[in-house]
Amino acid sequence: MMRGHSEAMVFAAASGAALAALVGRRRALAAAAASTTVVDVAVVGAGLSGLAAAVELHRHGSEVKVLEATPRVGGRVCTVRTLGADAASDDAPTGALPIELGATFVHGRDAGANIIAHMAYESGALGPTAPRAVPASRKWAPAVYARADGSRLPQSSVRAALNRFDEALDECDGFFREGKAVPHAGATVADYIVPRWQSLYGPEPAVSAGSGRVGAVDGVDGDGGHGGDGGAAAGGAGFATAGTRLSRADAWDVLSWRQRLESCVSGGGTLADLDLASFGEYAELPGGDAAVRVGYDRIVRRLQEALPTDAVRTSAPVRRVCWGGDAHEGDGRVRLELEDGSTVLCRVAIVTAPLGVLKQSCALGAGGAGGERPLLTFEPPLPADKAGAIGRLGFGAVDKVVVEFADDADVGGLRSISCVWADHDRADVGGEGDAAAGVLAAEAGLPRWARGVCSFWRDPVTPCRWTCWMGGADAAAAATESDETIASGIVAVMRAFAGRDVVVPEPRRVLRSKWAALPTFLGSYSFVAAGASGDEVDTASSPLGARGQVRFAGEHTSREYYSTAHGAVLSGIREARRALRGSLGVATLRPELWVPTTTAKARQERSEQDE
């Protein structure tokens, strides 16, 4: 009797629990239904491309909702103002300007050819006076080329060598621009440049133990394996200039330094990552580069202010884009499922997620791998050709560390320090082993990830601030380290390369970016990787659905302006106008707010064409 009573009680309890669960599910469904938003267009991402797309759609009367995964807008524009302009901190440097941890330059300051330059002038982001263009010779030519023991390389010889490198890099552009045949299928920029370095300096010495490298350019055989005329330099003695000389090992270490610099410029970790046939398709805009001094976020704010106040929703990560088959709405609308359980239904979705997020989505799939769940998935999954193109494009790690000292810190009167790491074994050259012992000992005391450090640059406006640039695999590794580890490690690197006679004081503060470690970015900017081409860029930007109801924008979808802020903005406008003409059925579009000059018009018109 007692047993039967207990069973009845258990059954009743179980029934009650089941009923409660059913009621809970019904309430959740009702809440989800109540939280469904219906708009004309939903934009995934509130970076420059997403905001530009939203503004263009809003101008044409479309109801648009921008869904941003992070708590802030701007994407890879990350302006820190807490200790800069518009701040009231008592210990901010005198005359301090904002700190840019993301986009920094306007690449092409001619406002008639560059939409970002136009927006920067209009918003005042470039400052009260017209900025001076940064000449290439000054932008990438530091005042000091130093070793980790503080010794200096002969500046005139280093610059002469770097001029030779730049000449070879210009020739790499010519393969695309002049239609020249590359040496072999899948050729890289390294395949072209390394033999020319060999002809100047002789074969590459053995790689130093602990350097973590397999050659001056990773993945390249440095022992004359490229053929060419590696033995042409008499005895491999080096290239003499103005009474100074670079040894063979020094010369190859300078090439390694220039590769580190190129990783910060192009986004690829090494020269062997960059496709030779497509290298010249990237288009430079006229006017030279200009640093944004008063805040890149002014451009972001200008775009956001052109939208209704409720158009942008932050901290709203989209987890699934349902666009076809049984996954989307029966009337052809796209359904976006957010992390909080809410839903957005739209006639068109424009996805501006960074390439790193898309690459993760393609690699892991909807179910994830090893328990790892991608940030964003598509249902059905992306077509094989599109997923393949996304996978073949490159997305590199480039980061900055800003070190701020007291206002009166002099740091030896230096304006920059270029860190030339000993990537090559002096014993392999002969006669250099003893001289290099101090350098190698100094490097051994520094963190392994620090080998990604290229240079330190002193800010000309706020001279107590120094910016360290680093790129490649070492930058990606550094992104996973704590702020405290990076701060102490970077200061140690700066002290080592500055030398014992230069006082590098304790910093007032250290700020850093870590784009590769942030799940909403997973990298810094895109490049055309070895074996890929501009065709992959076009495929990555191609729409989904019979009516093109899912579209893709972002710097990685700009065939000629990838990796740039202007490429991001133009891609957003491009996809907005394509959606208006196509899926939204707008017969006549309003004139664009900005039209490029004649010199850039043909290029712009090609990017504006419908599929």
From TrEMBL:
Superkingdom field: Eukaryota
Domain Amine oxidase: 48-135, 273-580
Highest classification ranks of the organism: Eukaryota, Sar, Stramenopiles, Bigyra, Opalozoa
Signal sequence coordinates: 1-20
Keywords: Cytoplasm, FAD, Flavoprotein, Oxidoreductase, Signal
Cofactor: FAD
GO cellular component, one term: cytoplasm
Full protein name: Amine oxidase domain-containing protein
A Pfam family hit: Amino_oxidase
